[in-house]
């Protein structure tokens, strides 16, 4: 599978977030409160100065009563089967980090599956939120920090945990990591 990026840069992503926030009549302060992110960070994202991680983007989308796919203008037509050759992908932020959408889900779906490609040295943001996550490492090596414990994962290893525990990870291999993620997250109110 090669990356077929949707081609949105940080300014386009930020503009989409800003338009949605303003359409809802929400302030930066309100979105920051709902996402537990800082006003400064959200402002930087909206101005295209930085890009959110997938976790932060999911929280912003939830606060804006929408989905990442809608903010990125990625098609969400539901199909029970997603063929590899038709899988959509998109990137967020820095070069080398991109996501393969494994399925658009269905109304009321509880899980978000994707494959994440991260370059050597990439460090995810530290997260703590309601839900659970499962990660299966396809290739590369990562150092997974869960609370005060560090887990070293290699190809074929997996981790599954409650996301109320603080967590983040770092790609420690010389090559990129390819990770299968299935996560749950709070459903946005309609």
Oligomer: single chain
| Major β-sheet annotation | 6 strands, antiparallel
Structural class: alpha+beta
Q: Helical stretch count?
A: 5
CATH superfamily of the largest domain: Jelly Rolls
Query: Using only CA atoms, what is the Rg?
Result: 16 Å
Distance between the termini: 34 Å
Judging by the overall fold, what is the CATH architecture of the largest domain? Sandwich
> Roughly what fraction of the amino acids lie in strands?
25-35%
User: Mean of residue pLDDT?
Assistant: 84
What is the CATH class designation of the largest domain?
Mainly Beta
Tell me, what's the shape?
A: globular
- Give the fraction of residues assigned to helices: 10-25%
CATH topology title of the largest domain: Jelly Rolls
Return residue spans where pLDDT drops below 50 for at least 5 consecutive residues.
1-6, 186-190
- What number of domains? 2
| Overall strand count | 9
**Strand arrangement, largest sheet?**
1-2-3-9-4-7
The SSE order reads HHHHHEEEEEEEEE
Notes on the structure:
- The chain is an alpha+beta fold and 190 residues long.
- It folds into two domains: 10-71, lambda repressor-like DNA-binding domains (434 Repressor (Amino-terminal Domain)), CATH 1.10.260; 110-183, Jelly Rolls (Sandwich), CATH 2.60.120.
- Helix content is 24%, strand content 26%.
- The strands form two sheets. Strands 1-2-3-9-4-7 form a six-stranded antiparallel β-sheet, with no helix packed on it. Strands 6-5-8 form a three-stranded antiparallel β-sheet, with no helix packed on it.
- β5 and β6 (149-153) form a beta hairpin.
- Mean pLDDT is 84; it is low at 1-6 and 186-190.
